[in-house]
């Protein structure tokens, strides 16, 4: 594959690192004090309560609502772990699949908000592209250690 400036594999590494930076920004911009005291989950509960799909309402009420503080920590630190893992290229296929699943969850929850959907769809597309291109082979801990060859 001919490209300008970088090789094809290097461009896919740039894409992976950019996605990692995006996840890191998702973590960084959260108001941690409000988020960890339940503010983020309370906001999401309001969206889930009015959701057009009953399965989303029921799932949220069953899995998330009973544990708002725990879920707030899981969501925030999942975003941090995804960001750091993708930037460093550590356990990259795992991070790409986990990120895609998290984006699908966000996509399902926010199905009525098209502004939010653009971000989730783009991140999902980048995750799938980086996964199928095996973007961990270049500029990554995984590549350096010979993991996932």
Brief descriptors of the model:
149 residues; mainly alpha; 8 helices; 74% helix; transmembrane helix; transmembrane; DoxX family protein
Span between N and C termini? 20 Å
Give the DSSP E fraction (strand runs of 2 or more residues). under 5%
Total separate domains: 1
Shape: elongated
Q: Assign the structural class, choosing from mainly alpha, mainly beta, alpha/beta, alpha+beta, or little secondary structure.
A: mainly alpha
The major β-sheet equals: none
Number of strands: 0
What report would you give on this structure?
With about 150 residues, the protein is mostly helical. It has one domain (about 15-140). Helix content is about 75%, strand content about 0%. It contains 8 helices and no strands. Helix 5 packs across helix 6. The chain is elongated and about 50 Å long. It is found in: Membrane. This is DoxX family protein. Keywords: Membrane, Transmembrane, Transmembrane helix. It is a multi-pass membrane protein. Its main location: membrane.
Q: Topology, pairings included?
A:
Layout: H1 8-28, H2 32-36, H3 39-49, H4 54-64, H5 68-88, H6 92-109, H7 114-132, H8 141-145
Helix pairs in contact: 1-5, 1-7, 3-4, 5-6, 6-7
